[in-house]
Amino acid sequence: MLKMTDKQLLKEVTQFTKGLLKKAKCNHAGNCYAVSHILKPYLSFFYGVETMVVNSKVKQGKKKINHYYLLRVKDGIIIDATASQFTNIDGEQMPKVFIGEKPSWY
């Protein structure tokens, strides 16, 4: 197993998600469940990154949207491989993949 920095993890998750969704001919929106459940064992097997799948509600304006992402077990950092389907609380587009502390609106 390879040890990875958060920068390397971001690159790997971005490439993995891009390849997966390209093969499925779909985009990030509405695919968080599938991507999270496929990414979890991949990260564990190849990189020793232990995660758990989290189901939560993400605030988008007045709506709360059901969403799945990964939570890294060792430190509680989230790995959201389909973050780009959302805007942050300032209305800015989220990056394709978000790795960091869980935003308050998640």
Kindly describe this structure:
This protein is of the alpha+beta class. 33% of the residues lie in helices and 25% in strands. The protein has 2 helices and 4 strands. The chain has helices at residues 6-24, 32-47, and strands spanning 51-60, 63-72, 78-80, 98-100. It starts with 5 loop residues before the first helix and ends in a 6-residue tail after the last strand.
Strand order of the largest sheet: 1-2-3-4
Shape, please?
Answer: globular
Decide which structural class fits the backbone.
Answer: alpha+beta
Number of helices: 2
Q: Specify the helix fraction band.
A: 25-40%
Overall mean pLDDT = 91
In angstroms, what separates the terminal alpha carbons?
Answer: 31 Å
Element order: H for helix, E for strand: HHEEEE
Largest sheet: 4 strands, antiparallel
Can you tag this structure with a few keywords?
106 residues, alpha+beta, four-stranded antiparallel beta sheet, 2 helices, globular
In short:
This protein has 106 residues and is an alpha+beta fold. The protein is 33% helix and 25% strand.
List the helices and strands and how they pair.
Layout: H1 6-24, H2 32-47, E1 51-60, E2 63-72, E3 78-80, E4 98-100
Antiparallel strand pairs: 1-2, 2-3, 3-4
